């Protein structure tokens, strides 16, 4: 999944006979960032942030409609106030959406000297975009499965730790209760009561660990049952 944006950019560059391709994805803050680009320096790609509705890519992300641009962007009535990068001869800006959920924006450009993109190229970009969406969604599901398995492993570890602590803890608690009952009032008894209280807190932590491990096991079983159900023949 980490290498997927670079693979997408290389494939789009070849499939569309493009000079410049970039893939923008929404970040945690909701803004678009450049996940991969074949002509931008790494330090630039890591700093560029674009709000939804800002410039061409941001407006395409907001509208959900692809755009075919030729000539100067500033000449287009669709993007008033947006200036063109002079080296770009023509571009296709394609939104990647599943329903109303924005997955990303694909920017495909040809520089001067290349024939401009036509409507037929826009149709080709639509086919390409559908494959990119499928790849990105599969990567997202894979990451979710890895995270689920990791949580399940943590749950198993928690259950094992709780079990290992619980056995010696039961000895400590029972002996402390016995000694407290046999100790008269005084300084030693207060110290023993503090120790008993501390051991009781450890027991509460162990109980919480067991609950956590059971909850994770139940969630994992339920998730795998749902995933298995989706693949059953109708």
Plain-language structure description:
The chain has 234 residues and is an alpha+beta fold. The protein is 57% helix and 18% strand. It is built from five helices and six strands. The protein has a six-stranded antiparallel beta sheet, sandwiched between helices. α4 packs antiparallel against α5. It is rod-shaped. The chain starts with a helix and ends with a helix. 18% of the residues are buried.
Order of helices and strands: HEEHEHEEEHH
Radius of gyration, rounded?
29 Å
Low-confidence stretches: none
Query: What portion of residues belong to β-strands?
Result: 15-25%
Summing up helix and strand content along with how strands pair, one would put the structural category as alpha+beta
Mean pLDDT: 81
Main sheet properties: 6 strands, antiparallel
What labels would you give this structure?
single chain; 234 residues; alpha+beta; six-stranded antiparallel sheet; 18% strand; rod-shaped
Give a short summary of the structure.
With 234 residues, this protein is an alpha+beta fold.
Compile the SSE list and pairings.
Elements: H1 4-15, E1 20-26, E2 32-37, H2 42-45, E3 49-50, H3 55-63, E4 67-70, E5 88-98, E6 101-111, H4 119-182, H5 187-230
Antiparallel strand pairs: 1-2, 1-6, 2-3, 4-5, 5-6
């Amino acid at each position: 999944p980490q290498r997927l944006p670079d693979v997408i950019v290389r494939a789009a560059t070849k499939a569309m006979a493009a000079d410049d391709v970039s893939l923008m994805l929404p970040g945690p803050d909701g803004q678009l960032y450049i996940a991969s680009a074949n002509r931008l320096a790494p330090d630039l790609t890591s700093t560029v942030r674009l709000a939804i509705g800002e410039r061409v890519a941001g407006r395409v992300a907001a509208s959900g409609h692809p755009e075919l641009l030729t000539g100067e962007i500033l000449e287009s009535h669709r993007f008033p106030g947006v200036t063109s990068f002079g080296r770009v001869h023509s571009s296709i800006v394609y939104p990647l959406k599943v329903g109303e959920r924005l997955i990303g924006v694909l920017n495909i450009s040809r520089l001067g000297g290349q024939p401009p993109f036509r409507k037929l190229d826009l149709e080709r970009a639509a086919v390409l975009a559908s494959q990119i969406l499928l790849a990105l969604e599969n990567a997202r599901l894979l990451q979710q499965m890895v995270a689920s398995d990791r949580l399940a492993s943590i749950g198993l570890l928690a259950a094992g730790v709780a079990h290992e602590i619980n056995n010696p803890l039961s000895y400590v608690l029972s002996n402390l209760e016995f000694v407290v009952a046999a100790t008269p009032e005084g300084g030693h008894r207060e110290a023993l009561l503090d120790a008993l209280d501390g051991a009781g807190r450890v027991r509460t932590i162990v109980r919480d660990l067991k609950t956590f491990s059971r909850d994770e096991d139940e969630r994992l079983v339920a998730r795998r049952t749902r995933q298995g159900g989706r693949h059953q023949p109708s």
